[in-house]
Write a structure and sequence with these properties.
With 328 residues, the protein is an alpha+beta fold. 37% of the residues lie in helices and 24% in strands. It is built from nine helices and 13 strands. The longest helix is centred in the last third of the chain and has 20 residues. The termini are far apart. The protein binds ligand DP6.
């Protein structure tokens, strides 16, 4: 019988044998926003997706992480010490177990340049930064594909946070996921901006891992999702290559709303939208009807991200004074 390898076995295959740590390793990784979303897994343990997805990086918005050998595991985030049994620390050190030799304890300092829990895929930039920081600590020189696969084992969307610009996550077919990783598709368009509207900082009621599991298991609308991606992904990829902002924005907005439709139809329902979310979407539609080039996308949370060319910046800041703007 063919057995699927564990995350530890995959990591073992991808890492160099010599494993002597240096004094410390530091790295930065940008967050990413999916234009065509990843929603639903074909393998939970290896975080293998059912479909491909495509994202744009968030420039200076992301995670800077430093790792150094220490007497005991210790995590500091935004200057705050997290207890070893805190769920964030458990998840991060569980992931670092894949990358470190047994017995090596680590002190980790992590700084996000984005609000935590703002639905901004900060876990993606954290796991991508962790892989790069460990690479720096051990002096490895990993092939880009290995880096992306390793980050994917932490959080699926993290495999898209190792390159700047537009990144496509190839879903792959292999049971071991060695063909499932992110590839840089194109550099960012210089005029493209991504705005973040933080509408609610309340902790999400359902995380994305549980949200996608529940959707796959209980939502009849999820049956239509792979077909939606099969239509949107080539449209978005073509728009990226052609530099066609309106085609990109329209396909990305429709893709995001379709993803939310699948979750709303799950049971118990997953309704991330707050009244402010709906109001912001109506506002975007009104601005667009009035001629402003702007489209919306949303991840597993209540906050809305805006896609627009820099020429629309002043009008959007007038409409949304708190808009946080990233240059991919
Ligand atoms: C809605 O990558 O956070 O942001 O693989 O379970 O860690 P896990 O999930 P995660 O899911 C991201 C979902 C999304 C869409 C996307 O980024 O493509």
């Amino acid at each position: 019988m063919h057995t699927v390898p564990s995350p530890a076995q995959i990591a073992h295959r991808l890492l160099p044998a010599a494993r002597e740590p240096g004094r410390e390793g530091t790295a930065f990784a940008s967050a990413n926003i999916a234009l065509c979303k990843y929603w639903g897994k074909r393998d939970e343990a290896l975080k293998l997706p059912l479909t491909g997805s495509l994202s744009i990086s968030m420039g200076t918005l992301g995670t800077r992480m430093t790792v150094r050998p220490a007497a005991a595991d210790c995590l500091q985030m935004q200057g705050e010490v997290f207890a070893a049994d805190h769920k964030v620390a458990r998840r991060l050190f569980g992931f670092l177990d894949l990358l470190r030799p047994p017995g090596l304890c680590l002190e980790v300092e992590s700084e996000n340049t984005i609000p935590m829990g703002a639905g901004l895929a900060s876990s993606a930039s954290a796991f991508a930064a962790a892989v790069r920081a460990m690479e720096a600590l051990f002096g490895w020189d990993l092939p880009p594909r290995s880096r992306s696969i390793l980050a994917r084992l932490g959080s699926g969307s993290a495999c898209r946070s190792l390159e700047r610009g537009f990144v496509e996550w190839l879903p792959g077919e292999a049971a071991d996921g060695m063909d499932s990783y992110g590839v840089g598709l194109a550099p960012p368009w210089p005029e493209l901006r991504v705005g973040v509207l933080t509408l609610s900082e309340a902790e999400k009621p359902v995380g994305s891992t549980e949200g996608m599991r529940r959707t796959v298991e209980t939502s009849r609308l999820f049956d239509a999702w792979p077909a939606q991606v099969a239509r949107d992904l080539p449209r978005i990829r073509a728009a990226v290559m052609a530099g066609d902002f309106h085609a990109l924005g329209a396909a990305a907005e429709q893709n995001a709303l379709s993803m939310h439709a699948t979750m709303i139809a799950a049971w118990p329902p997953i309704l991330y939208w707050r009244p402010e979310t709906v109001a912001a979407l109506h506002r975007v539609h009104a601005l667009r009807a009035a001629g402003l080039p702007v489209y919306a996308t949303l991840d597993a949370g209540p906050n809305v991200k805006l896609l627009f060319p820099v020429s629309a910046r002043a009008d959007l800041l007038a409409a949304f004074p708190d808009l946080l703007i990233a240059t991919p």
